[in-house]
Structure formats: structure tokens, C-alpha cells
Amino acid sequence: MRGWRIFACVVLAAALQGLTSTCAQTVTGGPGQQKTLGDVVSAASPTALDRGFADLYNTEFDAAQREFTSWEAVNPDNPLGPVCEAAGFLFSEFNRLGVLEGQFFTDNKFLEAHKLSPDPTLRERFDRAIAKAQKLAEARRAKNKQDSDALFSLTLANGLLADYAQLIEKRNLASLHYTRLASDWAQQLLAVDPQRYDALLATGFTKYVIGSLSAPFRWILRMGGLPGDKASGIADLKTVSSQGRYLASFARILLAIAYVRDNDKPRAIELLSGLRQQFPGNSLFDREIQRLQAQH
User: Fold this and answer.
1) How much is the average pLDDT of 71-89?
2) What distances in angstroms separate CA 149 from CA 87, 100, 137, 156, 249, one per listed residue?
3) Based on CB atoms within 10 Å of each CB, which residue in 7, 60, 250, 253 is the most buried?
4) What pTM, to 2 d.p., does this model score?
């Protein structure tokens, strides 16, 4: 059973790569909040994808899908449209099932074997969006193996499949397979476009989780191509949180979870306070702050 739990640990963040800003500068926001350069660029000239991801963080999932599909209508040959749609479907399902609740992770409930109850209609839409994104990505790579949008889309698609398999269906081996694929695509993406910092989200949380395991298990997973380094993983997440564009806020959520697991509640509350200020429509942040404050 312990081996299955280790497999489960490594898949959480593989799903969540995206596009990034082109600079490494950050801009300080209000108390407890740090705005990234991506936030500033998005606010100055937001695209439909910018608006869609902002809607996701505010749990306005229908609005997010309208933004993603409008972007796809203008860019029908780009796999980013359908893969962002798939991300929206998964975020919606996570929200409905309570997957992103901090207690879900601190109590290790995500390692339990029982399946959750997915929405079959949403699953069908998720699968169609993933298949379309993969088909479009491979068509672009047939013309240019280093096409960064295609590499990103394949990274995200496999990560989304990994998270669905593990966090909803509890299919550990399948999730590990997709995690390794997502990591491979992310490394190819960063090799050709190192400033797409959000790709570090997958490697960052995976390295953090594996680095938190005991030495024998770290060695086994390293031999399987999944190295772990807790400090390096946190550094990757911090890079995404400060330099990312679409997924900076999700990196902050993962950092908050990591800080809670490491018993650093003040830093977790600081991050969550910034997220609550930035996305007032998402009640998750306020609930988690209250829960952590009640534990003092």
C-alpha cells in the first residue's frame, strides 16, 4: 500500500503548465499580495485566455469557457484553445468535488483509494477537448518539432490526464504514466523556450513531494526518472508564482499547501490573503484562511 501512495504523491502538479510572461520582473501589490509581471501585462492588454484563467480562479467556470471558446474561434488551428477548455473542465470538477481544499491535502485524503463521483457529461467534454488539443498539437509538430504552443499543449494535456486519473479516479499507475509524459514534454518546452516559466509548475511540485519522502523511496523514483529535491521544488514554484502569467496564482495555491504541510502557517496565510484579495469571487481562500487561523 505504501508504494501506491508514493505513486499518488508525484502527480498533483503535472497538470498545471501554461503560458508565461517574457520578463523576470515582479511588482509588489497590497498587503500579503504580490502581482507578477504577467498580471500587469494581462491587466494592460488582456486576451481571452487571460480573462478565462482569471475567471477560473474566481470559480466563474461558464464565463471561463466562453473566453476559451472565443479565443479558439479566432485561432482554430492552435491547440491552446481546446487544452485550456479541458483545464477549465478539470478546475470545475475539482471545485465541485472539493479537491483543492487544504484539508484534502493536509489529511492525505488524496491518497485514499476510494474514487470520487465524477460528472459523466463533463468527463466526455473533457476527453473531447484533450483529444482535439493533442491532434492539433501533433499537426503543428509535424511542421515544426519545436513549436512551443504544441509542446505546451501536450505538456498540459498529459498533466490534466494525470490529475484526473489520480485525484478523481484513483488510477495510480495511469496517473504516473501521464505524469512522466507531462514532465518529458515540459523539459522539451523549456529547452526551446526557457522563459515559459509556468512549465516549471509540473517539475516544481513533483520535486517538492518526492523530496519530502524518505531516502529509499526518493532513490526508487529517481531511478524511474522522477528526481526529487524539496528545496529546488519550492524554488520552481516561487519562480512560477513571481514570473508566470496564467498559472502564477495556482503556483501560490500549491505553495500555500506546501507551507501548511511544512507547518509554516503564517506564510500560507499570507499567500492565501493575497489570493483572496485578487479573486474575491473564490470562497476557497477565505475558508482556508479561517481554518488555519482557528488552528493557532
Assistant:
1) 96
2) 15, 27, 8, 10, 21
3) 250
4) 0.78
